[in-house]
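Exercise 3.2. Students should predict the tertiary structure of the chain below and write it as structure tokens, then compare their answer with the key that follows.

Predict this chain's 3D structure.
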Amino acid sequence: MKKLTSILLVLALVLGLAVPAFADNQTSGQTELSYTYIPDEEPNDPVYTVTIDATLDLDLGINHMDFEVSDMEDCDGKSVVITFASTSVQGAVGRYETKLVAAGAMLWDPGVYYELYSAAGVKMAAANAVSDPGFVLAEFAEDGIATISINIPDESIIDGLVADTEYTGTLTFGIALQ
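Answer key:
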């Protein structure tokens, strides 16, 4: 009887430990993972508005032109810098003359020369001079207005000018955050 009880106990233990598993026969599985990066603070692009007169009628003597910078935001301590880029009269390669010319005139034809001064009063070019691009005309660390000067000195009115003729030219400016 002891043998029978021992065999039954062993069978009960063996059968109690065996658990049937009913599962598919899969050899692989897949889980989709995703992560969204949200930084503490994303830097914003700098924002600023520069206003420059589109036209300026010049008189003999000193003339003024205003540059206005407004709405400066997220500039990270940098300044808006306005520089001389070019004129409509090109001199030597990469250099420009500060000269107004009649329509259809050639570089060597008579014209009206002018001097250009930065907002700080520094002369960029003398009348009848050739200038290099990059001269700083005005710099703004915050919203404001700066005035440059364009001077047509008496001696720039030279012989050969045609009466009642409009002499024109363009100034091109560089604008950068530095």
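Discussion points: Residues 47-177 form a domain with the Immunoglobulin-like fold (CATH 2.60.40). The chain has one domain: 47-177.
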